[in-house]
Design brief:
The chain has about 325 residues and is an all-alpha fold. It contains twelve helices and two strands, in the order αααββααααααααα. α3 runs antiparallel to α7 and α7 packs across α9. It is globular and about 65 Å long.
Length: about 325
């Protein structure tokens, strides 16, 4: 059952990290939002996500303790640690009802090129901005998932009782909320690409601290910095992908971004690396993300770069193109 669950988990994770972002970008364009408004919306979404995570942890704890695990009939049970899963299903059904009743279907833009994987890969090779955006997303998110598997042993000491992981997790979520607010402020005073570089460099530095120090307090403080970077990352990358990735291939390209992510997460788990080597790996991955962010920043600053796919045109040329389209 766990194996079946993980197969289904791969499907719903791909949907979770592609469909909703694709819908939001298409809807924001349909409603006439600019890049700043899209970034603000994403920042609020991830701020709310952090609040929901904190509330879910506390609510799940209360639900699990409401009644003991009880056999209903045969293999069917209720109560105990099953209750949070049942409660999650209730919330998911409620969300499904809201989507059915209030969301319109966005089919995106179809340029006639199709949205197959071969076509999407060709777009990534031809438009370097799309490629660098994917390198940033895959690198950062793979380091984030590796961090999820390893933060608990990093904060444990031999001969000492286990730390209060629930409270620590709540602190992490609070830092994610803070990070989303920091992004909201910085997006008003500097380009999104520059925020990306700062986020990647700070993340790499926080992971390097784990390699350099075995003190649990120092590691905990470094993890808080990383969680703030996570809160900055999601609205930042959502805004960039909304501006860079072609609409007619958006969901396909988003899923291609996730393939190297999963490979990178599997490698340290299969190789059973130590904590030190694991965080050396994540630091290197985050440095790659930082280099990709720097390249993307320079590419988008230089709109005339032929490899960027977003060459800046002279206003007179644009007026002439509009005139030709009107004549046609």
């Amino acid at each position: 059952m766990l194996t079946i669950g993980r197969i289904l988990g791969g499907i719903y994770t791909s949907l979770l990290f592609s469909v909703f972002d694709s819908w939001l970008v298409a809807e924001s364009q349909h409603q006439g939002f600019d890049g700043g408004q899209l970034g603000d919306t994403l920042s609020l979404a991830y701020f709310g996500s952090s609040i929901a995570a904190i509330a879910a942890g506390q609510l799940g704890e209360v639900a699990a303790n409401m009644m003991p695990l009880t056999n209903l009939a045969g293999p069917v049970y209720y109560g105990g640690y099953i209750t949070p899963f049942d409660l999650a299903n209730v919330i998911l059904v409620l969300c499904m009802f809201i989507i059915f009743r209030s969301w319109s279907e966005n089919f995106g833009q179809n340029s006639g090129g199709g949205s197959d994987w071969a076509g999407a890969l060709k777009v990534m090779m031809d438009q370097k901005q799309v490629l660098f955006c994917g390198l940033i997303a895959s690198s950062f998110e793979s380091s984030m998932f590796i961090f999820v598997f390893n933060w608990t042993p990093c904060l444990m000491e031999d001969g000492e009782p286990p730390p209060p992981f629930g409270h620590i997790f709540s602190c992490f979520m609070i830092m994610c909320m803070l990070g989303s607010r920091i992004f909201s402020y910085l997006s008003g005073v500097m380009p999104i690409e520059q925020i990306g570089v700062i986020t990647m460099v700070a993340s790499a530095g926080s992971h390097l601290v784990v390699v350099a120090s075995s003190d649990v307090t120092t590691r905990f403080l470094a993890f808080l910095v990383f969680e703030a970077c996570v809160g900055m990352y999601f609205p930042m990358i959502g805004t960039l992908k909304g501006e860079i990735v072609p609409e007619d291939m958006r969901s396909t390209i988003y899923n291609i971004y996730r393939f190297p992510l999963n490979v990178a997460v599997l490698l340290p788990l299969l190789m059973n690396l130590s904590i030190t080597y694991t965080f050396i790996l994540t630091t290197a991955i985050l440095l790659l993300a930082g280099a990709s962010s720097f390249m993307l920043m320079n590419m988008r600053a230089n709109k005339g770069d032929p490899g960027s796919g977003t060459a800046k045109q002279d206003p007179q040329e644009l007026d002439a193109m509009v005139g030709k389209q009107e004549d046609a």
